[in-house]
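EI: anyone free to look at a 208-residue chain?
SC: sure, send it
EI:
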Amino acid sequence: MLKRVPKHIGIIPDGNRRWALEQGFNKQDGYAHGISPGFRLYEMMLDYGIKEATFYGFTRDNNKRPKDQRIEFTNACVNAVQKLSGRDANLLVIGNTESASFPSALLPYANQRIPFGRGLINLNFLVNYDWEWDLRTATQDREIASSDISRIDLIIRWGGQRRLSGFLPVQSVYSDIYIIDEYWPDFKPQHFHQALNWYQHCDVTLGG
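SC: here you go
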């Protein structure tokens, strides 16, 4: 029984390309294998009563990758969002829609929260996200582009890298970060259990 359950969890599903190479695939093949883990994690978050979760899809910088990889990670994001639109979740896709790299299929979900089913969890996807664009919006609209996303309590990153990679800098300001060395397509339920157990021992002071 957990004493503290984070209200909002950030997910950085890294390691798709490295996983693909180790499995004998091409780099771009790893992204499609990252969709199923997301749904398993979604079900687990519902079981734990998580109120909000943000998944890192792809960033402006990711668009520097070869075309075949760009096509595949874009398709993976579109497929994940469209499948989740039929679940009990309130969907919000945050990203720069003025860029040609933003997938047109996700425009109906872009920068507005769309309720589906019983709305048991707020699910946010960062698609063609750029932290500089996010913050720059505040100079025009008096609030950042991602202002509808709440402060993140716990960030879980797969793939072993120990950095945020531009992940929601405002909402992450007091986040605890748990690193999993295994790649995202190798997601296991114990990864999530271990992260939540680790979070029980974090000293949450919010600067106080």
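EI: Strands lie at 8-12, 52-59, 89-94, 114-115, 121-129, 154-158, 176-180.
SC: 👍
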